[in-house]
Amino acid sequence: MLIFMVGEQVCLSANMIFVGQMVSPQAFAALDLAIPVEGLISALMLLLISGASLPASRHIGNQDFKSAARAITIAAISAVGASILISSLALLNIDSVVSFLSSDAELSYYLKDYLFVYFIQFLPMSLASVFILIAEIYGRPDIASKATIVSCVIDVVLDVILLKFTDLGTAAVAWADLAGYLIQIGLIILFLYQEKSIFRFQLPKGKREWVALGKENIQSGVSYCIPNLNLAFISLVANYLVLNKLGTEALFVWGVAYQVLTIVFMFLDCIGGTVLVTMGSMLVGFGEMDGLKVLVKKCLLATLLTVGPVVALVVAFPELAFALFGENSLENPLLSNKWLRIIVLFSIPYSVCVIKAYLTQTLERRAMSSALFLGFVTLTIGSFALLALFKPEFMFLGLTVAGFAFVFLDLGASIPVRMRHPECRGYFLIPDNKGSEAFYESVPYTYEGLDAALLDITKYLNGTTVPEALRGSINLCCEELAMSLVKKNIDKGDGYFFDISIVEEDENVKVSIKDAGKPFNPVRSFDAPDGSDMNLEDETLSLRLVNVLCKDLTYNYMYGQNAIFMNFSKKS
User: How many C-beta neighbours within 10 Å does residue 119 have?
Assistant: First the structure.
């Protein structure tokens, strides 16, 4: 996922760099004015397309390939319909769109050339996103990465050729992007065909299924969409105020800073949008709050190691960022350097806000997540706009100071929440596993390691209040499933493990088994993807036995990980 997102960001940054270097800084500033439009469209595509990834992956994990295909089909139809509608309206009213974004004649000239082609490429961009989704959720994200890398290389080469040998100006990079999307679509289709992909587009049956699957896609897509909307709104307001209060050179400074912010957002989207929302939701669903705390710490560390160096580099050497985007003769370099440093520091509180917002989505606190983003945007944009009216030269400082102030205010607001809900801990308010005792062990893919783990499970269960008969059922289910995993992955060798965890609650016992080995679905249906019976030989009896002993057994396969969940009632 990170490789794919880096490839996408390389294309976007290359567009800005080449335009700044080969056309003019004014053309670069014009492309910066188009960023809010691109951000809004990106948010819409995330809402309609990326939202299908969670329900589709869940259906695939349960071997319900038809429902997965229908969820993706709805996403594809929605995205194509929205892209055609928006593109048509935008192209018919292109002058109005440009005048809304800019009142400067020179900037408007460059902006119109670019946006005209951008709205033409909206449809292939949507289709490329759909096929990337298909490749990723069907277990082949490497296909999406390979296609993206090839298309990005071709895109960059076309950027240089068209800018150097034609007079297309800013439209050149849009035409290059269009060619890149078409190549990306063709490569993914070719790769999937060679892999004999099981995916087929399928229309839902009846209005009720249309509504249910569409609603599920949208609800899952909100967590991906909101950060993009947030950044697009900040950019829209900032572009207007900076251009009208400080002029074109300040707009260039803001444009360079925004490119840095988009790199930061790329890392946040991968760390928060993929790891926290996807893996964190699985942990929350199973009640593994201790595991969620560990996951959040790792996400914060990953954010520090990715965002930190980017911020430090720009703060230490701002002139290199300006030179990269084609400006070597700033009228006031000292002031421009100071502005750039201040804006880039805004990414620190923004990162904290985004990570917490993703976490609150994961904990199903949707109202809190919305309030978090609303409060952050209101405070930062309000401070920015207020200073723009009375002290324009300090407006960038207002953006960053307000961001840090919001984090401290939010930290203070978490104190009364913890007082009312003592089970919630720390700034992120992650609840404890209240009233539960947990067992956790990493098991090597060896028979010796399996025997030792089963003995530990027996010792743990004997020390709980779980009825004796139920202890035997839990132990047997763990043994049968773990044995199947060991058999399938015995060739891995030393250093590879799968995880077993058991959580005792007041009325239930929850068991999870997770491994990153070969796909393995033990749930009731033992059908192959093409509908034929699978020849499981001696596994058939043991897996059917597990399904008889545990009536509440679910399975997911997402991002290369098998996740088996069993829920046992103490009263059963």
Answer: 22
